[in-house]
Amino acid sequence: MSPHSSIPAAIFGIVIIGVVLLDAFETVVLPRRVTRHFKLTAWFYRRTWIPWRKIAGHMRPARQQSFLGYFGPLSLIMLLAFWAASLILGFALLQYGIGEHEELNKERITFGKLIYHSGETFFTLGYGDIVPTSGPARALSVLEAAMGFTFLGVVIGYLPVVYASFSRREIQISMLDARAGSPPTAVELLVRLAGTTELDQIVLDGVMRDWERWSAELLESHISYPVLSFFRSQHSNESWLGALQAMLDVTSLLITGIDGIHPGQARLTFSMARHAAVDLAQVVNARYDPLAPERLDDDDYNKLQETLAAAGFKLRTGDEARQKLNKLRAMYEPYLHSMAKNLMVTLPPWQHPTKLKDNWQAGPWDRMIQAKGLAILGQKPVQPQISDDHF
């Protein structure tokens, strides 16, 4: 028994299938940012992120970060399910428009039953309770089954690539823990570099070169796979935005001028990191905030100079140097602030006002281990302290 054909339904089905296939191609295969005004994947992430962020806003900070961490992986699975459901709907509309189907018990074919038939065809279940009887309907069923196999291949190949990119990003961020503190700051990075090795131009250029490559990989991976922007780091005080800001802060100081250090490699790293900040602000749909707070006022700037001077870095002073630093900051701070506001990420300052414990220094057994050791010695346990002397 065949339903009446419907040309509008068939046209609507073709449009849905075309839009989903184009979006999947641009998201999975096309290695560049799409500048078209409307993009289905971008629309999906924005519409699902808004309520998720609002719910997180009513939670305590500790639970909030854990809740936000679920969005990236979960939204990736939801996107794949959204694509599959859209394709099933599109093919059901096409089958409805073409007509010529028959059910085993000769019941009337409804649109709901065609959605069921489209789903079992897409996932290649093949129960055979609804059978296409015309040539076009049969050809469409074969095409949908082939697309179901292709979709499975996309899922199998897409997820490992996304997680491999996430892993490469996080390795470098984790290495900042002992090098620049938790969360990382520009001042702490320079101070620790000066304290752990005989700092020279070669060592500093090597560090900057590593972060130039990291910034390039960050830009490439997050444009190719925008969902990575929502993937949080393992620790709540670490983030790809915080690491990017720390590198831009460091290179800004080196470009402003530190006696005895040539800023050549710092300029290259700054250019690459700033490029990443600008392009990724568009990926996460960040909006300029004219009320962004000042990160480096006069008091903070003076303390920064004093801390660097104590570590052996003589930062150039004077109005010209300060204006140069402010100009460099204006090139990236608005983008990072807007991205952090949109993604609910807390960015670190230029310098922590007090000494913070690094992530590697914290452990769930520290107090028990110390209490046991001191009990053997007959001493009272005290709060464990780990300093740079432990190196």
> Could you tell me the radius of gyration in angstroms?
28 Å
User: In angstroms, what separates the terminal alpha carbons?
Assistant: 80 Å
Strand content: under 5%
Number of strand elements: 2
Could you give the order of strands across the largest sheet?
A: 1-2
The average pLDDT score comes to 85
For the sheet with most strands, the description reads: 2 strands, antiparallel
Domains counted in the coordinates: how many? 2
Share of helix, binned: 55-70%
Low-confidence stretches: none
Shape: elongated
Number of helices in the DSSP assignment: 13
Look at the helices and sheets and give the structural class.
mainly alpha
What is the H/E order?
Answer: HHHEHEHHHHHHHHH
Brief overview, please?
The protein is 65% helix and 2% strand.
Write up what this structure looks like.
The protein is an all-alpha fold. The protein has two domains: 7-157, Helix Hairpins, CATH 1.10.287.70; 181-359, no CATH class. It contains 13 helices and two strands; from the N terminus they run H-H-H-E-H-E-H-H-H-H-H-H-H-H-H. A two-stranded antiparallel sheet has the order 1-2. The N and C termini lie far apart (80 Å).
What tags apply to this protein structure?
391 residues; mainly alpha; Helix Hairpins; 13 helices
Topology record:
Elements: H1 7-29, H2 40-56, H3 61-98, E1 101-103, H4 111-122, E2 130-132, H5 135-180, H6 186-196, H7 201-224, H8 240-256, H9 264-283, H10 298-310, H11 319-330, H12 333-343, H13 366-377
Antiparallel strand pairs: 1-2
Helix pairs in contact: 1-3, 2-3, 3-4, 3-5, 5-7, 6-8, 7-8, 7-9, 8-9, 8-11, 9-12
